[in-house]
Amino acid sequence: MDDIQNFATKLFDFARNGDATLLEYIKQGVNVDMVNQDGQSFIMLAAYHGHTELVRQLAAAGADVNLLNDRGQSPLAGAIFKKEDAVIDALLDAGADPTAGQPNALDSARMFGREDLLERLS
Fold first, then answer.
1. Residue 112: which residues within 8 A CB-CB, separation 6 or more?
2. DSSP string covering 80-118, please?
3. pLDDT digits (tens, 9 = 90+) for 5-45
4. How many helices and strands in the chain, by DSSP H and E?
5. Residue 53, SS3?
6. Residues 64, 43 contacting (CB under 8 angstroms)
7. Structural domains of the chain, ranges and CATH numbers in brackets
């Protein structure tokens, strides 16, 4: 069991660190929408940590850009919280739903004073 846990930890570290090595594992059959113990998906971790290119690549590989974590948060809301504008653009380009989750991306934009995003998200 330790080997499996270590492998999974390594995969989530790739996402957290923006390491495209993750994509090779996905090509070999790892579920692109795999989640960790907190319900954080690869795309959520990449988005939250500002890795725009990996977000784009994960979306292109079929990742669910609206997959909510265990707290009901979307990758888009997380990117707004972290002020990751390039990631926000990448997620919107990939079809992220601004109304997914709670608080959703619109709520997050209002909460964090991101008036510049409200029109784009509406």
1. 80, 81, 83
2. HHTT-HHHHHHHHHTT--TT-SSS-HHHHHHHTT-HHHH
3. 999 999 999 999 999 999 999 999 999 999 999 999 999 99
4. 8, 0
5. helix
6. yes
7. 2-121 (1.25.40.20)
